[in-house]
Design brief:
Elements (H helix, E strand, L loop, with lengths): L3 E6 L4 H12 L3 E6 L7 H11 L1 H4 L5 H6 L8 H10 L8 E4 L2 E4 L3 H8 L2
Parallel strand pairs: 1-2
Antiparallel strand pairs: 1-3, 3-4
Length: 117
C-alpha cells in the first residue's frame, strides 16, 4: 500500500521545506497545502487539536504571536481554534498528516515511523 502524506505550511518556512525534502527523498507522494494561499479547513484543524492539543499548534515564538496581543489571554480552546483558522501564521508548521497520525513541526523520527513496513 502506498503511503500518502499531507503537509500544510508556508512555502517560505524552512521547517516546511525540510518536511517536503524528507518525503521527496524517500519518493513518498505528498499533497502540499500552502497556508499562505489559503487557510486550513476547520475539520482538519480540529483533527490536529484533538490529537495533539491546541497548545501544541500555537507558535508562541513566532512574530505573528507577538503582534497578535494574544499572549497571556485566557482563551478557550474554541476561541484558539477560531484564531488559528483566521490567522494561519499563528500555527507551528509544518502540520503533517499520514492517515490518522499527525505531527506539528519538524518530526523526522515520527515521519520515518510512518514509512516503516
Amino acid at each position: 500500500m502506498a503511503v500518502e502524506v499531507r503537509i500544510m505550511g508556508f512555502k517560505n518556512c524552512s521547517e516546511t521545506r525540510r518536511a517536503q525534502r524528507f518525503f521527496a527523498e524517500r519518493r513518498v507522494k505528498v499533497h502540499f497545502i500552502d497556508l499562505g494561499a489559503g487557510s486550513l479547513q476547520p475539520g482538519e484543524l480540529r483533527h490536529f487539536a484533538q490529537r495533539l492539543g491546541v497548545n501544541e499548534l500555537i507558535d508562541r515564538g513566532g512574530a505573528e504571536f507577538g503582534r497578535s496581543g494574544l499572549a497571556g489571554r485566557g482563551l478557550t480552546e474554541e476561541r484558539w481554534l477560531a484564531e488559528l483558522a483566521a490567522r494561519p501564521r499563528l500555527l507551528r508548521t509544518p502540520l503533517c498528516r499520514c492517515g490518522a497520525a499527525v505531527t506539528v513541526g519538524a518530526a523526522p523520527a515520527s515521519w520515518a515511523d510512518w514509512l516503516a513496513p
